[in-house]
Design brief:
223 residues, alpha/beta, Rossmann fold, 6 helices, 7 strands, 38% helix, 21% strand, globular
Length: 223
């Protein structure tokens, strides 16, 4: 049994990724008194999006995180799909700075999937989590993100085969409420919707003998 951590950090490529991938897990730990911090690395900013779109997503994120019980969050404001234009060392340092300031025992980061931002941020997050500092995170996990994670090409790109599951049966209503805050991001289409997220949680729960679960790839466990 792993002891309850004091601090958890979540690295989110964009507003809504944290809720899609780990919203119910965040709510469960927040309710247990764990300090949860979220870093939004990128966002819907110019040149691809008007500033107003980013401002709307910021307000939505603020509402969603309050629903989940998150106390601290930060926006780096790097334009979406332009994260890879930033020098690697600079991105690594930004993420490392966030982690050093919070000293989390647990870090949740995005799986390197179809979205270029997710892949680049995964790489930098793993670098930032290296065990080269006395306060390095002992538990590092990668979460799945509807729909990007499941669009990787089987046999050619890495597939999401989770080894770590969190029973979130009592927290899916909170996840649903948080997702509904992201009116500009969550669509009613078949690939990214509240309904699809609930169905994925139900499926992950069915794999593990619980009502609902969220799934993660293990990067590091040190106990």
């Amino acid at each position: 049994m792993i002891n309850l951590p004091k601090r958890i950090a979540v690295i989110a490529p964009h507003p809504d990724d944290e809720t899609l991938g780990a919203g119910a897990t965040i709510a469960r730990f927040a309710d247990a008194g764990v300090e949860v911090s979220v870093l939004f690395v990128s966002g819907h900013l110019p040149p691809l999006y008007p500033k107003e779109v980013f401002k709307a997503s910021q307000l939505e994120a603020n509402s969603a995180l309050k629903v989940l019980g998150v106390k601290r969050w930060e926006f780096l404001k790097i334009p979406a799909t332009r994260v890879h234009h930033l020098p690697v060392a600079e991105l690594n340092e930004k993420i490392l700075k966030f982690l050093r300031e919070r000293e989390p025992e647990v870090v949740l980061l995005p799986f390197p999937d179809r979205h270029i931002d997710h892949r680049v941020i995964f790489d930098s997050s793993v670098v930032a989590c290296r065990p080269v500092h006395p306060q390095f995170p002992r538990l590092v996990l990668a979460y799945e993100t509807l729909s990007e994670t499941h669009w990787n090409v089987p046999g050619i790109e890495p597939g999401f085969g989770p080894e770590f599951f969190v029973d979130v049966t009592n927290y899916m209503k909170r996840k649903k409420a948080a997702l509904e805050c992201y009116a500009s991001q969550i669509r009613n289409g078949p690939f990214r919707s509240v309904e699809a997220s609930m169905a994925l949680g139900k499926f992950r729960g069915s794999q593990n003998g619980c009502g609902y679960a969220e799934a993660f790839k293990v990067i590091r466990i040190v106990i």
